[in-house]
Every structure is written in C-alpha cells, then in structure tokens.
Amino acid sequence: MAATNIQEFVDSNRTKNIDELIALVKQKSISSSGEGMQETVEKVSALLEDIQAKTQVIQTAGHPIVFGEIKGQQEFTVLLYGHYDVMAPDPVDAWVSPPFEPNVRDGRLYGRGVGDNKGQLMAQLLGIKAYLEIHKQLPFHVKFVFEGEEEQGSANLGSFVEQHKDDLLKSDLAISIDGSCHESGAPVLRLGVRGMLYVELEAVSASQDNHSGNTGNIIKNPAWKLVELLSQMQGNDGKVAIKDFYKGVQAPNEQEKAILHQIPYDSETLAAKIGLPNLTLSQEEYFTKLMYEPTLNISGINSGYVDAGAKTVIPSKALLKLDMRLVGKQNPDEIYQNIEKMIEPIEGVSVIKMVSTPPSSTNIDSIFVKPVLAALEQGFGTDPILEPVMPGTLPNYVWTDILNVPVLIVPYANFDQANHAPNENLKLVNFESGIKSTYHIISEISKIIEGGVKQNEYVKGSSI
Ligand SMILES: [Zn+2]
C-alpha cells in the first residue's frame, strides 16, 4: 500500500531502501582507474527510470554524466547534483569489512562510496520517490545531474554545464547534496565555497649541482630566487602583495557577522583538533578568516641538501608549490596572470597552473535559505546550522557563474563518514534523514513557489 506520509514511507520501506543502497555500493565505480564506471552508469540510469525520470547518459571528454528529469506542476525547476564515482579503496587491508562488500555494523553501513556520495545520491532519489508516492505529482520540475568525475576534480563538469545551460540544464536553483553534517550531528546548509588557484614554480640556475666554494657568488642559488620571490608575494604584515590579489574580496556584512556567531565555536576543542596549544581568535575572527579571507599558502618547497650532516652545495634547481584559497569574486585566472608577470623578469624561473577553480557564493538573503533550513529541521529532527561559506573548495561556480542560479550545499552524511579513507560509512539514521530532507525540500520550496515568486526574484542577479 502506498505511504501517506514521509515517515510511513521510510518505516515501511526500510529494508528495501537499504538493500538498494547496498546494491549500488557493491558496484565499483572508481573514477581514477575507470573500473566499473559503465556498469554504474547503467545502474544509476535504471534507478532514475524507476522513479519515472526521463533519463539520458551524456558523454563528456571523461566519464559520462547521468541526467534525469521529472516534470512537475509548475515551470519552476530545481536541479539536484550528486556524483556516482568513488575514490580508490586502498589501503584495502585497513578495512574491517571489504570495501565493495557493504556491511552493516552498529547502525552504520560500511563500504567505499557509501557516504561520498552514493548514500546521499540514493537519498535524493528515494526522497523524490516518496514525494511521488504520497502526492502523485511533483509541484515543480526536478532535474538530476550525477557526474562521474567528482573525485578527480570534476574536470568536465564546467564545459558540460556551459554546453547545456540554455536547454537541458535550465533551472532556477541548484542543490548540491554532498559533504558531511556538522560534528555535533546537526545538519548544515552551506551557501558558498572558497575557490582555489594552485601553482607550481621551478627555479633553475646551472645544469648541475655545484661546489659552494668553487662556484659561490658565481652561480645564483635557485632557492634564493624562490625565497626572494616569496618575500615579494607577501609582506611582513601578512598581506599578500601579488598585484590586485584582493580584488573582489568582501568583508562580511552585519547580517553575515550575526550568522557567524550562531555557528558552534569552542576554541579549546578546535585548538586540540588541529594540534595547536591554543587558539586566541574570537569566534567572529575565526570564521571571518575561514570564510571571507583568501590565503596564500606554501604547500611545499624543496631544494638542496637537508639530510644528516653538512653538505656544501649550490643546488641546480628549487621547487615551490603554492595554493591559494579564494573568496568573494576573486578571479584565479587574473591572479595567475599577475604571478606570471612577477616572475617574468627573474631569469630561470617558470610557473605552471595546476588548479584554477573560482570561488562561488549564494547570497544569505536568497529566498531559498529559509525553506531549505525548515526542510532540514524536519528531516533531521534538530536545528540546522547555516554556514555562509565552506572553507574548502568545490566547483560550485558552474552553477552560480555558468548556469547563473543560486546553489545550496546540503550534506546528509555523518561527520565521521571517513570518506576517502578506509572504513567509509554512512549512519543509517543519516540515510533516512536524507530521504526525509529531500522530501521536505520539495515540499517547503513548493510553498514559496505557490506563494507567487516573481521571475526576477529568483532568477539571476546578485540578490539571490
Ligand atoms: Zn569525495
């Protein structure tokens, strides 16, 4: 018999829903090696077809994208995003149960990809399935984009969105269902992500290592070239001195500051977690630094002799890797060009761009924030936390800057899901809370759509 409410759907389909997730996790889909990708594409397509979604597999230069669409009563369209690929499972020996033989222990399902992202992907599908079973029809259109390269940096997602933004993908709101809930167990709604520019620099002098006496003052040490460059890149005040680096950086406004004060903050626990003796930052400073300020980080530097004892040498080359987390409207390509200009006059120094992902933001005033918070509260049965910006990097600019819609990040997995690590797991209670949350997201958004949202209130522009 068809369920009449979401709790009934979850209760009466418990075993069936978990079995479906187990079957999906069993199917390998390792994007780095390509193992099982085609079989998983077929499986995910079949799951979409099961809920009456018009489904197609779209080839990209890498692994395909599985796209689905279910028409609803109104033109308004929500795009749900997830990924079907998983990380390689090694070291396999460190798993208590084999990574592709899903196993339930203590209320958690263990297996590679169960949290990141197959359990969350399945929770989206089952939430929509529940809505259809209970209400027969969706209140608006829902589109699904499940990609197969997230674990490899979503290399082809941007060009896919660019190519299909005016037809297949045309939407009013994107929701990315990936990541972890807060440490406390509370669900989280994230509105933005920091971007990333990653560069690798190499300095060379002579074609070989040389004696530091016999050639001292004759050969310029390449490590000095990089050290001098670094000192030009950041002043003693800690401010980055790359030209126009701060263009597009915006301090939080009063409303955003107020939100920062609502995020749980315990400086002692945080200090212990990151291995510092103490953290003297105030709550507002801490979150402002993580969410509204960019970084220039030396990820690695390597040159010369650093093993035991003394060795006098002028190394032939020096290497440097820098990562920059970007915020607001900073443009990684412009920053990269300015780095290129900085190194131009220095002989023997070259740079290459490894990663360039713009930051992405969704305004805190977006009309979708309240309904989605309400949905999470109902789905998880506890107050959600609103995070204006996620300190890490995701390619969310494809939705905000290419598709031109606001994006909300709504993670369902438990904080300790151990994704990318051995013994990845998803708490079954999170799986069910995810199913319920998806159902409530549709239901809560439908209320504001019915309330008569004018086109320009939700489409385009910075007010979303
Ligand atoms: Zn991942």
TrEMBL record:
GO biological process entries: proteolysis
Record Gene3D superfamilies: 3.30.70.360, Zn peptidases (3.40.630.10)
GO MF term list: metal ion binding; peptidase activity
Coiled coil: none
Boundaries of every Peptidase M20 dimerisation domain copy: 192-345
Protein keywords: Hydrolase, Metal-binding, Protease
Official protein name in the record: M20/M25/M40 family metallo-hydrolase
UniProt organism field: Niallia taxi
